Amino acid sequence: MLRQGWIELGGSCAVILGVVAGCRGTRLPVIDRTAVGIIYDTAHEADLRTGKMAGLAAEAFGRYVDTLSEPAAIVDWRDGISTWEVFYATNRGRVFGSPDARVDFGNQVSSSPQYGRAEVTLPRRGRGIDPPTAAGRSRLMPVSFSKPKTDDEVVQFGTVEVQKPESFLAGVNNQLARSRQKDLLLFVHGFNVDFHSAIVRAAQVALDVPFNGAVVAYAWPSQGGVQNYRADEPANQASVAPFADFLQSLLDGVPADTRVSILVHSMGNRIVMQGINRLSPGARLANVVLCAPDVGLGDFEEWAPGVAARCDRVTLYASENDAALIASKSLHAEQRAGDAHPPVLLSGVETVDCSTVDYTSFLGHSYYGANRHVLGDLFLLLKENRPASERPHLSKQLNARREFWVFSGNAPNILVTWHFEEDATVTK
């Protein structure tokens, strides 16, 4: 039986200083403080439409009617346990003969993308916390936890199927038709991420932002394992052409007024930035959010103008406390664009320095999905379409007369409850 349930889009995080704070003598993350927030229930919409709610209350709640409406990608919701339909494209090679007969993709590099859909169930958990698998491990960071006692405490995969491109686009367009703002989030992962983990992360981000439009993931053939970082680089470069083909077909296959936003992490930025530069002249994106990009300054400066020319807004999230990018800088003998020491400032790119926010992500590298302040900032960016100058928790700073933005206050702290009674596509 499907029931309504609360999800907290706020709360406090534990203070973890990270391994890099001392090695540079840079700014430490600030102590996290939970801000007074707003509680929004989608049942308020009926009162707003009939005029039962007016005045300051209507002004406060009215802004969330579309941005916090029930997500089009949720197919089941029970007491905070959510099942997401995530459409995917991948240039990973298909793996056959898996023990559970589930569709799976390995780390072989394919020259053309395959398409499909997957259903993944996320358990109740704190915002930004990676859910464990049945083995008691996180899919995105293989740390052992106490083994969960019930299925409701772990990630569960349902259907994973391969589709023809036209079926894939039909499914994406079905989600778009049911979304209030006709927007789409495309997530592209970084290195050391397998196929199923990419699907989980796409669903996690959609839930935690929250993003209520269509949800798509692109999975490139990361070779898996920190020791295979060097092997990931040629696989990453070989993925540029198939990703560009996929992205062009996606933009051509959705309605022209669709707001397509890309959220990309780490080494995945190399694929996305080059792929965007290969799009046809008329292609247009709403947002491209470059999270902790493991991209050398030379390449970033070459690719960024083409990205900015095809996007309404380009946002760069960077941090001084990112140990993974500090290591990459040493390996490549070149600063990475996601390293804010110093911040990378280019025309057409809004740089947000995340060094001062508290984070819980491993090595300070995955804060985009692990920190409630950054998730709150993403909500204002992706769902309310606000530039950095209109996100009040950010303060403007100058470096060589160029502006960038730093976290100086609490990002939005929101509680929302969803109801799906009128949506026949959601399991009852």
From TrEMBL:
It comes from the Bacteria. Transmembrane segments: none annotated. Pfam families: DUF900. This is Alpha/beta hydrolase family protein. It comes from Caulifigura coniformis.
